[in-house]
Amino acid sequence: MPPNTIPRVEAQSIGPLSAQTGVNIETIRYYERIGLLPAPPRTRGGRRIYSAEHRRRLVFIRRMRELGFPIESVRALLGMVDGGHACADVHALTVRHLDDMRRRIGDLTRVAAILEDMADRCATGETPGCPIVEALSPD
Amino acid sequence: MPPNTIPRVEAQSIGPLSAQTGVNIETIRYYERIGLLPAPPRTRGGRRIYSAEHRRRLVFIRRMRELGFPIESVRALLGMVDGGHACADVHALTVRHLDDMRRRIGDLTRVAAILEDMADRCATGETPGCPIVEALSPD
DNA sequence: CTCATTTCTGTAGCCACTACAGAAGCAAGA
DNA sequence: TCTTGCTTCTGTAGTGGCTACAGAAATGAG
User: Fold this and answer.
1) Per-residue pLDDT, A53
2) What gap in Å lies between CA A22 and CA A25, rounded to an integer?
3) Share of chain B above pLDDT 90, in %
4) Which of A79, B33, B103, B124 has a 20 to 30 A CA-CA distance from A94?
5) Is the pLDDT of residue B107 over 70?
6) Position A2 confidence tier, pLDDT thresholds 50, 70, 90
7) How close B69 gets to chain A, by Cα (Å)?
8) Is the CB of B70 under 7 A from strand C?
9) Alpha-carbon gap, residue B43 to B48, rounded angstroms
């Protein structure tokens, strides 16, 4: 066997994995604890050794979390992809999540408009007319 | 003293207060525990009796929470209003919070755009080309 | 071999509630 | 007066998604 046919194992411990993926060490262990990331093999001393497959999975988890999917949705997505028959279900979940995002954007936008109005009316620095202070005064 | 000059006490127990203000009973007690709502007097049996002033304060807290102010900001707002010299500080806090809301709206909007794109590209139902499934495949 | 760094487990804290359990108060009807 | 059923009480634990320790053990470079 020539040396260049030996496959590179690409194993790494949790620190470098954290640095490469941008996921906190504690968070990686947390994902393992809740069954999101498979438990990797260990050294004789008990330290975790991650493979490229683990790294891929972790990056996927991070991306989905950044996109706002809750943990349970990420778990479902992983199950779908692992199960093979993915895209239809994945699409449905994505659309549901997108609807949720849009609703939240709408909520926040309405709130922002009210805050803007409050700030404007408060900007004079006078207590009478300030909608916040007034809300607490006896009527 | 004619009967109509007697001020109405407007006292009520926690259940009606909850119903009137729309704040959960448990949440009302929680606000008391964390010092946001003053502890009201009690009956001999130990039940809380709320006055109109408590009710006003609670409605204020609810409104500020609905507008997304974190508890500590609500606490600060109450302190400002109680302290008298309110509006300038209130304005500053409001503007800070508004900035925060706008940042969050921006974040969510960016995320929604990405999700939309993902959903579109996933809509064909074919696994190749699906950006989610691809992210997990070995490269 | 020494020493600094990394990693380990387990637990507790964060925010803003929410959900109990089990006991006790209270009001209306018989 | 007594019962019945509703309300309220305290205290604790759970939620989501991490984050922050403490104290011990493993590891790798010099």
Assistant:
1) 94
2) 9
3) 66
4) B103
5) yes
6) very low
7) 10
8) yes
9) 7
Strand partners, A12: A50
Q: Provide the 3-class DSSP secondary structure of residue A42.
A: strand
Which residues 66-95 on chain B approach chain A with CB closer than 8 angstroms? 66-68, 77-78, 81, 86-88, 90-91, 94-95
CB proximity list for B13: less than 8 A, separation 6 or greater: B47, B48, B49, B50
Measured between CB atoms, does A54 come within 8 Å of chain B? no
CATH domain A8-84 topology: Multidrug-efflux Transporter Regulator; Chain: A; Domain 2 (1.10.1660)
Nucleic acid strand C within 7 Å of A14 CB: yes
Instruction: Look at B138 and A56 and tell me if their CB atoms are within 8 Å.
Output: yes
Protein-proximal positions, strand D, CB < 7 A: 7-11, 16-21, 25-27
Per-residue pLDDT reduced to its tens digit, A121-135:
876 655 556 666 676
Place of tokens 């606000």: B31
A3 CB burial (10 A radius; 0-12, 13-18, 19+):
exposed
Gap from B14 CA to C30 C1', Å = 29
